[in-house]
Amino acid sequence: MRPLRLILHNFLSYESLDLPLVNIGLALVYGENRDSDACSSNGSGKSAISDGLAWVIDGVTCRGVRGNDVVRRGSCAGCRGELYYQDGEQGCHIVRYQDDPENKNALEFWVDGNNRTLTDKTETQRLIHEHIGFDADSLRSILFMGQGSIPFTRRASAERKELVNQVLGVEEIRRAYKRATSKSQALDAAVRGLESQKAVLETRLSNSIGEARRWAERHVQWRQDQQASLDRKKLELQDLSIPKAVGTIGGFNKDYTALLDRLEAEISKLSDAYSEARSQSLVWQEKAQEQERLNLPAGGLICPTCRQIVQVEHIEAVRREVEQRTDEWYKISREWNETQSGYEAQLLIKRSGLRGLTEEYRTLQSLRDKEEADERFRQSTLTQLEKDIRALESAVSPFEDGIAQAKEQARQAQEQLFDIIKQLTVNQEERQYIAFWENAFSRTSPNNLEGRVLSIALPFLTDRTNFYLDKLFDGQVKIEFEIDATGKREKLDHRVINSQGALGYTGQSAGEAERVDIAVGLALIDLLFARVGKVFGFISIDEPVAYSDEAGGGRIVELIKSLEAKDRTILFTTHRRELLEAWDSRKLLVTKENGVSHCAVPGSSVENQANSREKS
What we know:
Strand order of the largest sheet: 2-1-4-5-6-7
Radius of gyration: 70 Å
Strand content: 15-25%
Helix content: 55-70%
Largest sheet: 6 strands, antiparallel
Number of strands: 17
Shape: rod-shaped
Structural class: alpha+beta
Order of helices and strands: EEEHEEEEHHEHHHEEHHHEEEHEHEHEEH
Distance between the termini: 39 Å
Number of helices: 13
């Protein structure tokens, strides 16, 4: 990864900076603070260049400044930073905003002209780190060796170990351990949840099976009751299918009707004869009575034949004739009376017989009606029985739905239980797998990866540190690293060995310790590059010769010059005048005037003016 161009707007003390990094190579950065007579180069904005590059990549400067604190004082337009860099064959571009009126605090990431920015800013930041290959802590602590960073030898032994672990990417192992632990806890919680669900489903399955069994028992009982009812109905149907004897009511009905008709005819004739006899009797009686009224005791008699007055001389004869005829008529009347009485007696007999026969007929008719009603009832009962039998034969059990529902619930519970058991098996297998990595990542494990990585890396770190120490001390100083695991926390101790033997940090001068720190810092950079498998084409070394004498400082400068490479930009910042005068490579002049920093870009008129001013 090689930075190509850095653009800053309203960042810290810079109002505008467009710095091409591709052709700088190794450059000494010095400054002039024209706003204060008390300072010559301090506060001019030299370190802000490295701060700007770190902020664009990670959102935090080398000195830990973040948020709106990076916005230049007095600016109302917000802050913007851009970094163009090349990673292999890909051209990349990062744009970061802070308190921008339009873009707020946005972050953009472009690769080969394609916008790779994600919706979530945190995810975009993670994508940038993955693409660059270096985490934020490594960038700030190792690649930007500058102000605010504590030298390696001045750190506590536990802090030294953490710094080396940081370079080795042990934090990723720790994050993996946390992920494994979190995953393990999640799996344990999932297993407990699945076990709880399993218990619930087993109870539900048992209840469903029991419910299905109870429904089945009710169904069997219902079937038995239905069969018993069906058998009983069929027996009733069989009994009713045979018609009962109805006697001779049909014959009696015909005979009685004929007898009644004959009697009624005879009575009608007798009544007519009786009426005729009575009428004749009355007629003859009236004739006799009328004849008696016609008898004339003084004047004679009226002849009953001709109705003429009979002469006296004939009266006796006529009287006798009249009397005779009157007697005869009375006799005829009496005969008709006797005939009437005979007819009346016969009528009484016939009518009495008619009443008896009618009563007997009515009784038989009532019996016939009852038998007909019974027959209709039998037929209706037969019809109802046949209907009931068909209904019984085609009846659907009211418990079948309950059985089907209980079976379906049992089936669903069985399927869910099968899925739960399957998921439990998967989770338990994954839990065993996670337990392996959890044990591997755990610091308390005797064979934990963190300790093994550190043990493997220490020889490389020792060799590279001694390689740089040889150049700084002509082979007279060596360093040894060792792990101290006697306490609760592992520590990383070191021993500096010179011609007088092993010395701790307190036994060295500030200049010697400074050179040891430079060697360790460069070795850590080599270790970082080796671990990542790629080179970060920018190194910032801020004030590396603050305590060294002229000879020691010269050795440090020569070592830094030896780091120059084709695809690497190295900014060596200093405020020591003698180093500036002796520097024969590229220089960057940073000036601050009226609170605003300016950097003379290589090849620009500003740089030419600065070089002319330096020569004069």
